From TrEMBL:
It comes from Chitinophaga tropicalis. Keywords: Membrane, Transmembrane, Transmembrane helix. It is found in: Membrane. Pfam families: CcmB. This is Cytochrome C biogenesis protein. It is a multi-pass membrane protein. The chain crosses the membrane at residues 25-45, 51-70, 98-121, 127-152, 159-177, 197-219. GO terms for molecular function: heme transmembrane transporter activity. Its main location: membrane. The keyword Transmembrane applies. One of its GO terms (biological process) is cytochrome complex assembly. Belongs to the CcmB/CycW/HelB family.
Length: 221
């Protein structure tokens, strides 16, 4: 039973990856969005100071997450979802979506970081710490918007609903990620850092738990 669940999950992840490779326009569209957004920021403010650079980076990350992850459920037709409903367990389906979106968001986070460094300069002092933070942030954003996309997909494929529902959650998440990332731009110890990491991890665990509990009920509808 356990091996069957793992096999189903991996098969679904492979399906999403193959679908992404075949529909390259979606990936290139997000890539163009990242490059054009960062380039426009460069034209407006050139090389911003550390605090502004940090804030702009996470704002770009937010919109990248919305654009990249919204299509994970919204591109699935009703007929295709009904077909998957007859083949796989709903928890295996949502786990596969979570894994795929984490991988996708990790790639997009690296691309965003490279673009920001190229166009906006590199004020980061502790690079490897910042790289770890953006990976954690990418995971948190992907988990949040995957769950919201699953809910929005049941509401007539309404992508706007995902952004509206996520607004009260994404604000504290972005503020927390921005505060954690501040240590990358300074050489002194930032008090309260372990507590913020713990809060971030707790939020991720809560989102995963809610996805595992709520998605089977959404799946039935």
């Amino acid at each position: 039973m356990k091996s069957t669940a793992i096999r189903q999950t991996l098969t679904l992840v492979k399906k999403d990856i193959l679908l992404e490779l075949r529909q390259k326009y979606a990936f290139y569209g997000i890539l163009l969005y990242i490059i054009s957004t960062v380039f426009v920021i460069n034209l407006m403010i050139d090389k911003p100071e550390e605090k502004i650079w940090n804030a702009l980076f996470w704002v770009v990350q937010l919109f990248v997450a919305v654009n990249a992850i919204a299509k994970s459920f919204l591109q699935e037709s009703r007929g295709r979802l009904l077909y998957f409903y007859s083949l796989v367990h709903p928890r295996n389906f949502i786990v596969a979506k979570l894994i795929y979106n984490i991988v996708l968001m990790a790639i997009m986070s690296l691309i965003t970081l490279v673009c920001c460094i190229m166009f906006l300069g590199n004020p980061v002092i502790n690079f490897w710490y910042f790289l770890g933070v953006i990976m954690l942030g990418g995971i948190s954003l992907s988990l949040l918007f995957t769950m919201l996309a699953a809910i929005a997909a049941q509401a007539n494929q309404n992508a706007a609903l995902m952004a509206i529902m996520g607004f009260p959650i994404m604000l504290p998440l972005l503020m927390m990620l921005s505060s954690i990332a501040k240590s990358s731009f300074i050489t002194v110890y930032q008090p309260g850092l372990p507590k913020m990491f713990l809060m971030l991890a707790s939020m991720d665990v809560l989102i995963i738990a809610l996805s595992m509990v709520l998605f089977p009920f959404l799946w039935k509808d």
